[in-house]
Amino acid sequence: MIGANPKSQMLARVRPAMPGAVRRRLRFAATALLCMPVLLTLVQCGRAPNASSLAANAAVASGDSFEDRFPKPEFRDRFPGPNESFQQREFADLTPRRPVQTQSIRVASLGPTLPLPKPAERDELTTLVSMKSSAFPYYGNNPASEAPFLNAGSGERRGHRSYSGRVYWQDETYNDSRVLVHIPENFDVHKPGVIVVFFHGNGATLERDVRDRQQVPQQITDSGVNAVLLAPQMAVDAADSSAGKFWQPGGFKRFISESTDTLARLYGEPGSAKAFGNMPIVIVGYSGGFLPTAWSLEVGGVSDRVRGVLLLDAIYGELDKFASWIETHRNGFFVSSYTHYTAGRNHELMSMLRAKGIAVSEDMSTPLRPGRVLFTETGSGITHRDYVTRAWTKNPIEEVLVKMATSNTRIAASSTASSSR
């Protein structure tokens, strides 16, 4: 079973208090999102992204454009002030968050006392770190066309022209190599753990959306599961689901490899990189995040370490890649929750799997064990824009991690979990 003290097993236990400064920042952000009138600039009117647009960057239907669903944010939304932003870290600053204390012990028959280090006390950490292996910048080809991804230009400026004809400039949209890293206060690298990789959808930034609006780091912490979070910045605030470096064979493997060193440094124990390097992975893809999820499973290079996939209203295409991973990785689980906007593609994938003799369940109350394939449709009143915090249940990422842990799901990585796929 992954981690200790999932929330369903610790109802009678008072959870250790989060350090005041960190908790105040998180609560302030959450409260601001609920109460501030400025949220009117982010209203999406409950519409899901157009399926054909997400699948191939095709033209968006009239009256359901990206601008209609994601009004342009104000300056303060796109560029948070110093009191709202993460502290960005350089590796020189990645020392243990609190100094290691020592206690004296007496060695039998020898007399002298020797210092024995105590485990360091750690604060919860949520920060942004630039990684070379993150999705962007990307200078390769678009595998859908085998043409260069940066296929537009103006002088020395380069950009990507989507099938709708809109140009997104590389220096504005595809030049952010940062990754949101979250390590909960109670995470223990010496216990069985899991790495959660979150691929966000269209029109998103890591701070404004992944951290504050969708509360992904908080869901990881609140699950009580021994897990850490990696969330790479995809296309910045744009109607584009391009996968960037995750299109490349071995791209996801390179990302995970670099991330293990980063996690070890942030955790304060450089020697823990080996432990992070052996942890299983759960991928969560929301909306346009389906594309980097599918390619990471297909050509990422570590598909055997991926022991769980959660798609949140995200099956807009690449059905063959999802079906292939499910068929060849029966030691992992697959969960897809969807609205009526993506119901057709979900039903198509279910039919493909049943034709392969793979059992499919539509009952989310069942245990989440290896090999389990679950689909669930959410009804009216559930909007695509809020799906990361409200799907079939409140905070679905938290719920899946809890179900994974309390179902005695053994997803510990094996010594050979470095698949060449």
Descriptive notes:
- The protein is of the alpha/beta class and 421 residues long.
- The chain has a single domain (7-91, 120-136, 176-406), classed as Alpha/Beta hydrolase fold, catalytic domain (Rossmann fold), CATH 3.40.50.
- It is 28% helix and 17% strand.
- The chain has helices at residues 20-35, 51-56, 66-69, 75-78, 170-173, 206-213, 216-223, 251-267, 273-277, 290-299, 319-328, 343-355, 396-406; strands at 102-106, 113-117, 125-130, 141-142, 147-148, 152-154, 157-161, 167-169, 178-183, 194-199, 227-232, 281-286, 306-312, 333-338, 373-377.
- The strands form 4 sheets. It has an 8-stranded mixed β-sheet with strand order 3-9-11-10-12-13-14-15, with helices on both faces.
- Helix 7 (216-223) packs parallel to helix 13, helix 10 (290-299) packs across helix 11 and helix 11 (319-328) packs parallel to helix 12.
- It is globular, with a radius of gyration of 22 Å.
- Mean pLDDT is 79; it is low at 8-18, 20-47, 56-66, 68-87, 89-119 and 411-421.
Helices, by number, come to 13
- Percent range of helical residues: 25-40%
- Biggest β-sheet, characterized? 8 strands, mixed
Tally of discrete structural domains: 1
Q: Pick out the low-confidence regions.
A: 8-18, 20-47, 56-66, 68-87, 89-119, 411-421
Categorize the overall geometry.
globular
CATH class: Alpha Beta
The end-to-end span amounts to 26 Å
CATH fold group: Rossmann fold
